[in-house]
Description:
The chain has 20 helices and 11 strands. It is of the alpha/beta class. Among the domains are: 18-237, HUPs (Rossmann fold, 3-Layer(aba) Sandwich); 357-434, Roll (Structural Genomics Hypothetical 15.5 Kd Protein In mrcA-pckA Intergenic Region, Chain A). The strands form 2 sheets. The chain has a 6-stranded mixed β-sheet with strand order 1-6-5-2-3-4, with helices on both faces. A 5-stranded mixed β-sheet has the order 7-11-10-8-9, with helices on both faces. Strand 2 (47-52), helix 3 (61-75) and strand 3 (79-84) form a beta-alpha-beta unit. Helix 14 packs parallel to helix 16 (307-321). The model has no long low-confidence stretch (mean pLDDT 91).
Amino acid sequence: MSTTDLSNQHNDPTFDSLWEELNWRGLVQVSTDPQSIEDALASGPITYYCGFDPTAASLHLGHLVQLLLLRRLQLGGHNPIGLVGGSTGLIGDPRQTSERVLNSRETVAEWVELLREQVQRFLSFEGENAARMVNNLDWTSQMSAIDFLRDVGKNFRVGTMIKKDIVAKRLNSDEGISYTEFSYQILQGMDFLNLYREYNCVLETGGSDQWGNLTSGTELVRKVEGATVHAIGTPLITNSDGTKFGKSEGNAIWLNPELTSPYAFYQFWLNTADADVVDRLKVFTFRTREEIEELGRLTETEPYRREAQKALAYEVNTLVHGEEATRKAIAASAAVFGKGQFSDLDEETLASVTAELPHAEVSADQTTIIDLLVATGLSESKSAARRTVKEGGVSLNNQKVTDGDAALDASDLLHGRFALLRRGKKNLAAVTVV
């Protein structure tokens, strides 16, 4: 995985305060005390944290919001702590619908290291406000159940806990909620208490859907230490039509290039709707207010140019995967739209392109253009395929085909196994010869 270039990241100096910029970017949906947080950020530096549970082998798009918020606060001179939940990951926060399947300790430990590497890429570990990484297993593994109940559990009231939105929903469902998941908010609250004691951490960030867990920490610190600490809940990322994208919706966009390729990642952002693109630029890029407003104006006046989408796709792909991966993704995108050559793409990039297309595996003796058009579903029958070829509507690797009965030659295979067929301008499919 590439290293993120942090050197060209800056907050926008045209805002009167960091808090003003965070709100303009739409990063604050709910907070404990806006004025107190604004004052603390202005008079800082303060120490703050965000936690990431290892419930999968990679972080996804929703986590990127938190990673960039951590970075923006660090650029403002504050001290970030990235927490990976080695203990909370063994439990799992309550889901909306059903109980989580508990992963093995070995799996969770492996995922902790993968997530630690991902989080570290987005923060600076140098300078006066260098980031720090922690694992909450370090302070929970030595605690006995009796100590947990006596020292921490006694500060929580069941009546308050069951009023938390997610807990209330689960209690009213057919499945209910186990004591294990019910206790999750206590564990997360204990994180904040420990970080307050150890590092004078006074702010936690997280998604607004985690608000009950976030405030369990602020309340625990208040009860045990008599101190006021704060939380910021960021909005869930949704499309203008109200639909949500994320892991729970079954269409996760992963930050690990082995799970979502840089090409697929680039295409995801490039396909952002006009109605959503300005909001995405605010949240996911370090473009200035002036630059984003200009891109918004171009989206209104010349939407066909898709300048805002191109800027968004370039910025976020480079942020997550690096400049070289973005360059390859742009070249692949140009080839897909008939404005570049598939033969210019390296094997890994070409494989990621074919993975996103209608695809057929064919044997070496099933390799005429007519056969391939039918095998990939670009044509319903051989007669239809032959007619399309005759009309000049078929290309192979972006080169026009004139003889549909010609056999696919070894020289036609890219990297010895791939071929790209196009019918018309927009219908593209991939073939792998096995």
